[in-house]
Automatic annotation (TrEMBL):
<keyword id="KW-0503">Monooxygenase</keyword>
<keyword id="KW-0349">Heme</keyword>
<dbReference type="GO" id="GO:0004497">
    <property type="term" value="F:monooxygenase activity"/>
</dbReference>
<keyword id="KW-0408">Iron</keyword>
<dbReference type="InterPro" id="IPR036396">
    <property type="entry name" value="Cyt_P450_sf"/>
</dbReference>
<keyword id="KW-0479">Metal-binding</keyword>
<dbReference type="InterPro" id="IPR002397">
    <property type="entry name" value="Cyt_P450_B"/>
</dbReference>
<dbReference type="GO" id="GO:0020037">
    <property type="term" value="F:heme binding"/>
</dbReference>
<dbReference type="Pfam" id="PF00067">
    <property type="entry name" value="p450"/>
</dbReference>
<dbReference type="InterPro" id="IPR001128">
    <property type="entry name" value="Cyt_P450"/>
</dbReference>
<dbReference type="GO" id="GO:0016705">
    <property type="term" value="F:oxidoreductase activity, acting on paired donors, with incorporation or reduction of molecular oxygen"/>
</dbReference>
<dbReference type="InterPro" id="IPR017972">
    <property type="entry name" value="Cyt_P450_CS"/>
</dbReference>
<dbReference type="GO" id="GO:0005506">
    <property type="term" value="F:iron ion binding"/>
</dbReference>
<keyword id="KW-0560">Oxidoreductase</keyword>
<comment type="similarity">
    <text>Belongs to the cytochrome P450 family.</text>
</comment>
<protein>
    <submittedName>
        <fullName>Cytochrome P450</fullName>
        <ecNumber>1.14.-.-</ecNumber>
    </submittedName>
</protein>
Length: 406
C-alpha cells in the first residue's frame, strides 16, 4: 500500500517510516529483535517493543510506570497536556489508578453497554438517512466520526454542538505536527480543550441530570473521591478515547473490506460473522498505533535491551498484532479467523475501559452500513495513495472517500 504525507520530504530512514508507513517499517524491524530504540520524537529516543509476547508482557509490567518519573528523558516533550489534562487514568499508577478506575467501571460493564444498543442503532440509522441521496462522500466525516462522538457525549451527558472544535483540538493533541517545532500549536489546543472541559463541568454543576458526568461531579463534590484536576482529566480521557479510536475502527475496517472484496462478500453473505470480523479489523489495522507512554522506573534488562531508569518504553500494538509467531498469515485480512488474542485494546490494568462499547458500536456501524449500502465502494482510483494520520498514537486515515451506490 502506498502512503503519502506532507512530511514525505523528511529523511526516509526507518524511524520516520514507522510513522509514515508503519506496517512496512515493522516488517523491516522485526528481524532485528523484539525491542529497539527509535527516534520518534525530535529530542530523544524511545524504546519500542514490536513482538507479540514481549508486547503483552510489557503492557502488564508495572515496573514500566505511567507517571513520568522525576528524571525521565523527554518528559517536557511528551507532556503537552500539562497541567489540567494530565491527571488521568492513562497517566496513573496503582493505587491512584485503581481509585480512579473504580469511579467509572460501572458505567462501562457489558450489561450497561448492551442497554445502549437500540439508541446506538438509531444514531447509526439517522446518519445513514442523511447520507442517502449522496453519490460520494467522506465516510469519516459523515459516519465514522459522528457516531461514536454522539454516543460518548450522550453517555457523559454533554452537548455535542461543539464537536467540530473538539475534533480539531483532539487531532492536534494526538498527531505529530512536524511544523510545530516549539509546541505552540499543541499548547494552544490543550489550553482550549481544558477551558472547554471546565465549562462543561461548570454547566453540569448548575444543571445536574441522570448521567455519568453528574455522577463524577457528585463523587468529587459530595464524596471527595477525586480532585478537581482528576475530574477534568477523567472527562478529557473519556471524550478523547471515546471518539478518536472508534472512528478509526470503522474507517480502517471499511477500508480493509473495500480493498478485499472476497472478505466483503463473505461478510455480506454471512452477517453472523460480524462480531468476529470486528475483532479481525481491530487486529489487522487497529486504531491505536503505539500504546501510551511508559517509563522505566529503574535500570532494567528488558527482553535483552539495557533500559535505563527514566527512559521511555512504547509498545507497538500494530506490530504485535501482525507478529507471525502469534497470527498465521498476519498480513491477510480474514473475517473468518478465530477471533481473540489481539492487543488492540491493550492489556493489563490499563486494558481499554471502553472495549465493550467500542465492540458494540463497531458491530452496529458495520452491520447497518453494509445493509443500507450493499454496493459501497472506494471512490476514485483504488490504487491512489492513502493518507494516514501522522501520529505515534492514532492509526487512522485522514479521509475515506467512498461511493455509496453502484
Ligand atoms: C476501537 C476503539 C478503541 C480502541 C482500539 C481502544 C484502545 C485502547 C487502548 C490500547 C488502551 C490502553 C492504552 C495503554 O495501555 O497505553 C485504552 C485505554 C482506555 N480506553 Fe480505549 N479504545 C477504544 C475505545 C474506547 C472507548 C469507546 C472508550 C470510552 C470512553 C475508551 C476509553 C478508554 C479509557 C478510559 C482508557 C484508559 C484505561 C486505563 O488507563 O485504565 N476507549 N483504549
Amino acid at each position: 500500500m502506498t502512503v503519502s504525507h506532507p512530511s514525505a520530504e523528511r529523511s526516509d530512514d526507518v524511524d520516520e517510516m514507522v510513522l509514515r508507513d508503519p506496517h512496512a517499517a515493522y516488517q523491516l524491524l522485526r528481524s532485528a529483535g523484539p525491542i529497539r530504540q527509535l527516534q520518534l520524537f525530535p529530542e530523544f529516543d524511545a524504546w519500542v517493543v514490536t513482538d507479540y509476547e514481549e508486547a503483552r508482557a510489557a503492557l502488564a509490567d508495572q515496573s514500566l510506570q505511567k507517571a513520568p518519573p522525576d528524571t525521565a528523558e523527554g518528559v517536557a516533550f511528551d507532556s503537552p497536556f500539562e497541567d489540567e489534562l494530565s491527571a488521568n487514568l492513562l497517566r496513573a499508577d496503582q493505587p491512584e489508578h485503581t481509585r480512579l478506575r473504580k469511579l467509572v467501571t460501572k458505567a462501562f460493564t457489558s450489561r450497561r453497554i448492551q442497554e445502549m444498543r437500540p439508541r446506538i442503532e438509531q444514531i447509526a440509522d439517522e446518519l445513514l438517512d442523511e447520507m442517502d441521496g449522496h453519490t460520494e462522500l467522506d465516510l469519516l466525516d459523515a459516519y465514522a466520526f459522528p457516531l461514536p462522538m454522539t454516543v460518548i457525549c450522550e453517555l457523559l451527558g454533554v452537548p455535542d454542538d461543539d464537536r467540530d472544535d473538539f475534533r480539531a483540538w483532539s487531532n492536534r493533541l494526538l498527531d505529530t505536527d512536524v511544523t510545530d517545532e516549539d509546541g505552540s500549536s499543541v499548547h494552544e489546543a490543550s489550553t482550549a480543550m481544558a477551558a472547554y472541559l471546565m465549562k462543561l463541568i461548570a454547566q453540569k454543576r448548575e444543571e445536574p441530570a441522570d448521567d455519568l458526568l453528574t455522577a463524577l461531579i457528585d463523587a468529587r463534590d459530595s464524596e471527595d473521591r477525586l480532585t478537581e484536576r482528576e475530574l477534568v482529566g477523567m472527562v478529557f480521557v473519556l471524550l478523547v478515547a471515546g471518539h478518536e479510536t472508534t472512528v478509526n475502527l470503522i474507517g480502517n475496517g471499511v477500508n480493509g473490506l473495500l480493498r478485499n472484496p472476497d472478505q466483503l462478500a463473505a461478510l455480506q453473505a454471512n452477517p453472523e460473522l460480524l462480531p468476529g470480523a470486528v475483532e479481525e479489523f481491530l487486529r489487522f489495522d487497529g486504531p491505536v498505533h503505539l500504546a501510551t507512554a511508559r517509563w522505566a522506573s529503574e535500570d532494567m534488562d528488558l527482553f535483552g535491551a539495557q533500559v535505563k531508569a527514566g527512559q521511555m518504553v512504547l509498545v507497538s500494538l500494530l506490530a504485535a498484532n501482525r507478529d507471525s509467531n502469534r497470527f498465521e498469515n498476519p498480513d491477510r485480512l480474514d473475517v473468518t479467523r478465530a477471533p481473540g488474542g489481539h492487543l488492540a485494546f491493550g492489556h493489563g490494568i490499563h486494558f481499554c475501559l471502553g472495549a465493550a462499547l467500542a465492540r458494540l458500536e463497531g458491530e452496529i456501524a458495520f452491520g447497518r452500513l453494509l445493509a443500507r449500502f450493499p454496493d459501497l465502494a472506494l471512490a476514485g482510483d483504488p490504487a491512489a495513495p492513502l493518507r494516514w494520520r501522522y501520529s505515534t498514537i492514532i492509526h487512522g486515515l485522514e479521509t475515506l472517500p467512498v461511493r455509496l451506490t453502484a
